[in-house]
Amino acid sequence: MNTAAERSTIPGLIRYIVKNIHPDTHTFMTHKVGDDWVEITYRKALENIDAISSWLLEIGIKKGDRLALIIENGPDYVYYDQALQQIGAINTSIYPTLSETEIEYILNDSGAKTILVGSPFLLRKIVKIANNCPALVRIIPAFDDFEKSIAKLSLNAGVVSLKQVIDEGLKMDDKYTSAIKSAREAILPSDLSCLIYTSGTTGTPKGVMLTHFNLTENARVSLIQIPIIEATDIFLSFLPLSHVFERTATYHICLFTGAKIAFAQSLDLLAKNMAEVRPTVMNCVPRLLERIHDRAMKNGTSAGGIKSNIFLWSLKIGKEVRLAHEAGKKPGIILSQQHKIAEKLVFSKIKEKTGGRLKIMLSGGGALPKNIGEFFGDLGIKILEGFGLTETSPVMAVTETDRIIYGTVGRIIPGIEVAIQNIDNQHIYTIQTHDTFKEDFQSEEGEIIVRGHCVMKGYWNKPEETASVIDAEGWFHTGDIGRYFKGNLQITDRLKNMLVNAYGKNIYPTPVENTYLKSPKIEQIFLIGDKREYITAIVVPAKETLQEAFNLSQEFFEKPDVFIDEKEIADWIGQDVKKYSSELAKFERVKNFRVKRNPFSIEDGEITPTMKAKRKVIEKKYAKIIDELYLQETEAD
């Protein structure tokens, strides 16, 4: 079998590694157990994977069956995913944060036969709905002492722990070795690898059908674009593997290169884990980078005096060095010496909090504010942006390591076409590929459409919805608005997010919101203004900053009132609303706002698991407050 064929299916990747890159005694994954980081070799992983496959075959699972997972990141996810994939079953991952109603819908829509469950909390969710899911035959807790969660319940599905599955599977090794090998070799690149259900900001979630080729080819060509990732790298994984971004950009990239995966314990312990693991590569979302930026700025300037002056001077030197490199020049002797001082006094201390070894951080899942990317560039940390959707496997474009244009999402990856289409008359302004790239190319703005190996097979059981987004010529319509800038793709906003004010002006919320999010006082902002005379907003303050400014206790944030009515707090935030409004066109400026006590949340159904606002939900939920914002015009500009 040639190399390309060996690496054209997900289960083929891990076996390629132990055959060509690492011995099977090499560390594949590491995770924290108690106080210690425990390493798992490829050999141990393959033993567990084959054991689970044997057990699945024993209970009658066959090619094409859908098997669900609702579990936080960790080795158990990998074992189960690899086990089901190598016998031709289809991974149906479910976000742990989804409601019981949404989970029930996904299980029934996919017809999932088993579900791997990661915690007692999640098991309690599953057992409440299990009997409403007729296809479900096994519930598999990935933890001990699950019996009390199912005591006195009459469940149609059997319940067996993952430990028992592996123990029983190990005893069946001889019985199913040949069958597993045959099943693995029978998988075609065109076969379905997974169903990933979209977040559903505007309606019922849809199961995106991604093939083995979609996923393996996406990882392969992304590595062409980012060739600095190597077998010696270590990734720290904390974004959910139930989402295609982390699955491709960490899990599958590591399966392609032989890099090690370390699983973070939780978001709350991420900073601690970064210092312990000292990763060289890490995928993240813009909000994490914003928080690191905000904390660094606060720590560097809050003391005032000499310490603050040194911090701000260092950032100035870092910016000068960055701009020199971007212009293709070498910093002069004096600037180079100044940069060494800045590195020693300031930059090295910030980097040490990330472990001190990061080569790159890849940001996805949302637009990264330009100033945040530039800040990390000034520190000497490369932040690469990527762009794509679940329906595109996901990567369509990613920043090249030697050419970072802040505010863009990079160059088109090899093997696909990405066009910009007029949203009114469907005229295609331009079609660009990896090979047509020109550093000075710029285009009109329009909807981003894509054609090629990354495009999904379609939506599960939804041919009409599939036809509505993939046209007769094979173009997938992303619903994102963008253009080409300096050869790179640049995202403006979501088509469905666009607000059209009462005077017919088009307003894209994302760049406006990002302008206000520069404020250290603002955690979230949601713009309103469709068919209205002016823009208003619901603003969520940055909790720690607000607490310090007004000496507030935790009880303040636990009050039942959704909105904060204290005028002094509104005035405090209003200072920054006015300040940053000056950077916007007059019709884009927020003229009135209300302060929400706590952030928009997944649990309240206000945002998706990928942190996108559910516009219709929020507007309906807070309709009374929104109407009040327009009863009296309050100028904030």
UniProtKB/TrEMBL annotation:
Keywords: ATP-binding, Nucleotide-binding. InterPro entries: AMP-bd_C_sf, AMP-binding_CS, AMP-dep_synth/lig_dom, ANL_N_sf. Residues 31-460 form the AMP-dependent synthetase/ligase domain. One of its GO terms (cellular component) is membrane. It comes from Mucilaginibacter xinganensis. GO terms for molecular function: ATP binding; long-chain fatty acid-CoA ligase activity. The keyword Nucleotide-binding applies. This is AMP-binding protein. It catalyses: a long-chain fatty acid + ATP + CoA = a long-chain fatty acyl-CoA + AMP + diphosphate.
